[in-house]
Design a protein that fits this description.
The protein is of the alpha+beta class. The protein has two domains: 25-214, Immunoglobulin-like (Sandwich), CATH 2.60.40; 275-305. It has helices at 2-21, 217-274; strands at 27-37, 44-52, 60-67, 71-79, 82-85, 89-92, 96-103, 109-115, 118-120, 123-130, 135-144, 149-155, 160-163, 169-174, 184-192, 211-212, 277-278, 285-286. Strands 13-14-11-1-2-8-4-5-16 form a nine-stranded mixed beta sheet, with no helix packed on it. Helix 1 (2-21) packs antiparallel against helix 2.
């Protein structure tokens, strides 16, 4: 019974720290938001790239709210081999749609969704809302103009001008930290005389590359071990403990009895050898009760044996 209690305590010690650490608050270290209107759909493409703050306990399930009319198309995890899809669950609520997925480590994660834009002739208008699901240490926003755009403005202003890999004008800004529950809203306006998409019939290719839906070969193996490393260590520790207990019980219960049986057998053999009587004339072995040799009839001399 005592051995069983020790075993249970050791196993529990492997899992209690993980369970306690999972209660920590989730903080986003950097939330980089890219806004691409009329890129490959007649809508605003919103791309979140985010990392959790150092020290955040993982794995942890996170939930992000997006507008109720949003269409969530992908959640992905950044790896050295590219982007790999992550299972997510969208749930419709009263005013929002909630996207839930598991963050397994400190890698970067990407969320993509589309929301409608407003059109009035050549005039275009879109809204972006960060609902404040988590505290954010640094918010970075980057808006890309569609092709053939004129008069792009935003509120708040995005002061940094640049150019995308597709040679489209971009506008960006860094807005510091946000508290949990603090909303951040951006409104964008521009004019465009055409409804042609910037990339017609082509899949979206964010800065991380095309999202790969199937991790295979060595990349898949490395990805599996990186996701499940704490669990693998815990299972390995349990196996070592079980193997040690089994060895202890077996070695402690079998050795003394085995040695006693060997000594008893050896002594019985020697005693049996000392009881043998042979005829002094013909050498025939006699039975213990014989007084004369059954082969030649000579008298047995037991006192000489």
């Amino acid at each position: 019974m005592r051995k069983l209690l020790v075993f249970i305590a050791l196993v529990a010690g492997l899992f209690i720290p993980t369970a306690a650490g999972a209660q920590g608050e989730v903080i986003i270290n950097e939330l980089r938001t890219r806004l691409w209107p009329e890129y490959d759909r007649n809508a605003l493409l919103v791309i979140y790239n985010l990392t959790l703050a150092p020290g955040t306990t993982t794995p942890v399930t996170v939930q992000f709210r997006v507008p109720k009319d949003a269409q969530v198309t992908a959640v992905a995890r950044e790896t050295t081999s590219g982007l790999f899809t992550v299972d997510f669950t969208p749930v419709d609520e009263a005013d929002w749609k909630t996207v839930s997925f598991d963050v397994t480590d400190q890698s970067g994660y990407q969320i993509e969704y589309y929301v409608p834009i407003q059109k009035n002739g050549a005039a275009r208008h879109f809204n972006f809302i960060w609902p404040g699901d988590y505290a954010v240490n640094t918010l970075v926003v980057d808006a890309q103009e569609p092709s053939q755009t004129t008069g792009f403005t935003s509120e708040p202003a995005l002061p940094n001008a640049g150019s995308s890999p597709d040679n489209l004008p971009t506008h960006s800004g860094t807005f510091g930290s946000l508290k949990k529950g603090e909303q951040w809203v951006l409104q964008g306006d521009y004019s465009r005389a055409t409804d042609d998409l910037t990339v017609s019939g082509q899949p979206v290719q964010p800065s991380g590359g095309v999202i790969d839906n199937s991790a295979s070969g060595s990349s898949a193996v490395l990805d599996f071990f990186s996701r499940n490393f704490p669990l693998i260590i815990a299972v390995f520790g349990v196996l070592l403990i079980v193997a040690g207990l089994v060895w202890y019980w077996q070695s402690g219960g079998s050795s003394p009895a085995g040695k006693g049986r060997r000594r008893h057998a050896s002594q019985s053999t020697n005693d049996a050898g000392n009881d043998q009587v042979y005829c002094p004339q013909c050498g025939k072995r006699a039975q213990p009760v014989d007084k004369f040799c059954r082969a030649c009839g000579s008298r047995l001399r037991r006192e000489e044996v």
